[in-house]
Structure formats: C-alpha cells, structure tokens
Write a structure and sequence with these properties.
The protein contains 7 helices and 7 strands. With about 270 residues, the protein is of the alpha/beta class. Helix 2 links the parallel strand 2 and strand 3.
C-alpha cells in the first residue's frame, strides 16, 4: 500500500545505535525512507548507518547527539539539514534502561534509589525527549508539519510486577526491583504525547506513542518464564516485531491518528 511508503522521508531516530533503535532504522529503510541514526556514541551511529546503506541500498545518515543537551540537539539539527535538507519525522527512542542486577541488589529499591540515578535517567529518557521535541519538533511545526513517535513501554500503563525480579535467599528488603525511573520516564512520554498532539495539531505535526512490551535479548531463563506467564501470548517480543508499527506511525497510513498509544505487548496490559 502506498500509504505505508516512506520514500524520501527523512526520519531522525534518537538512541539509534541501541537494540530497538537499529530495528527502527531498518524499518524506515525497508519502507524506502532515509533513517538518520542519532546517538551519543557517534562512531556507533555511523557504523549502523553504513550497515543500513549496505543492506537496504538506501541513503542513511548519522549524527552524534546528546539528547540531554539543547546545544547538542541544535547542532544535530543543523548537520541533519545540511546533509538532507529537511526533517519529516522524529522517533524519540533514547533512554537509559536501569537494570535490576548490579553491585548492590537493594540499590534499585525505591527507599534506596539515589537522587543521582533519578536525575540521570530522567535527563536522558524524559528531558531528552522534551528537548528533542523542542528543537526537532519545532522545526517541523514551522516547516509544514511532520511526525513524532515517542517510544514508551507497557510499564507506562501498568505497574511493574516486582515478583518477577525476586531472587532466592534474599530478605524482602534486599530483593531487587524494577527501578522507579523507568515507569516515570515512560509514563511521562505518554503524557507528553497527548500534550504535543493537541499543541501542534494545527501545525500539522502528529504525535503518537509506540508502547512495546518486553523484548527478548538473552535474559535469564527463569526471568523469561516468570514474565511470559504474565503475557497472554505466552512469550516476549522479538526485536523486529515493532518494525511495521513504526512504519505505520511514521507514514501516511496513520494520517488521522494523533495523541494515541499504539500498544503492542502480547496482551500483557489486558491482565
């Protein structure tokens, strides 16, 4: 269908050298678009861009970007426009995903969570999205419109089931948990989506959230079993299963959709 065609569309993907960022870039390339991989690891972004070009035979770009820095965002926009001449879509994918494991298992617990960790994780995942929307979104709003896709999580809609992180032999106060920052960041992205969808509607900027469930990436088998017991489809997602959704949200196929959450979680939020 032509509605899904991204030919000639320039799509900036933050955190583009990460696990899902690479998949988002591949999705844009498969649909004929021009993915621009933005990452704080500039060399990694360039490597991903080269791999995308070699595999899909499309133009791809790379920019070094610290999403938590407005000057870095402004510099990245200038480089993007110099190379590609326009911007059609922004995918806010950059985030810190604090792991449950660590040197101090109890450090992830709410009572012990450090202010430094809180500030660092919000700076990238939420403030970073805010700054990227300010810089890249404002550009699109002033130049005929565009698309913003915020990558949220099923944990933006439900509380984490901390039982799946438990470890044998530890007292309750020592048990690791999913850190509070992850839910706060992803929940904030859902609300930011709704705010900007109404704010920029007249400017032709559509804003939606992609809400994925857990992606299998070699996690321990006991954890995977506990998590999949919470998912009606009985498994975690494959990392490539969000490609079609990303294309849908970036393309004209979703032309009458804004301010919405596209939930793809194997049914987890139904339970």
């Amino acid at each position: 269908m032509k509605a899904f065609d991204l030919t000639g569309r320039v799509v900036l993907i933050t955190g583009g050298a990460g696990l899902l960022g690479v998949e988002h870039a591949a999705a844009v390339a498969e649909a004929g678009g021009v993915p621009v991989i933005a990452d704080i690891r500039g060399a990694d972004a360039e490597q991903v861009a080269r791999a995308i070009q070699d595999r899909y035979g499309v133009q791809a770009g790379a920019v070094e970007l610290d999403v938590a820095s407005r000057p870095s965002c402004e510099a990245a926009l200038a480089r993007l426009l110099a190379a590609h001449g326009k911007l059609d879509a922004l995918v806010n994918n950059a985030a810190l995903n604090p792991k449950v494991e660590g040197a101090g298992l109890s450090a992830t617990r709410f009572e012990n969570y450090s202010l430094e960790s809180w500030q660092n994780e919000l700076a990238v995942g939420l403030t970073g999205a805010f700054l990227c929307c300010q810089v890249f979104g404002s550009y699109m709003a002033a130049h005929g419109g565009g698309v913003i896709v915020n990558i949220a999580s099923d944990l933006a809609l439900i509380g984490p089931d901390q039982r799946i992180y438990r470890r044998p032999g530890l007292a309750p106060e020592q048990q690791p948990v999913k850190p509070v920052t992850y839910s706060v960041v992803k929940g904030g992205l859902v609300t930011l989506t709704k705010y900007l969808a109404t704010y920029w509607a007249e400017a032709g900027v559509r804003v939606n959230a992609l809400v994925p469930g857990g992606v299998y990436a070699g996690q321990p088998g006991d954890f995977v079993e506990r998590l999949t017991n919470l998912i009606p489809l009985g498994r975690m997602a494959r990392k490539d299963e969000y490609r079609a959704a990303l294309v849908f949200l970036c393309s004209d196929a979703s032309s009458y959709m804004t301010g919405s959450n596209l939930v793809i979680d194997g049914g987890r939020t139904c339970w």
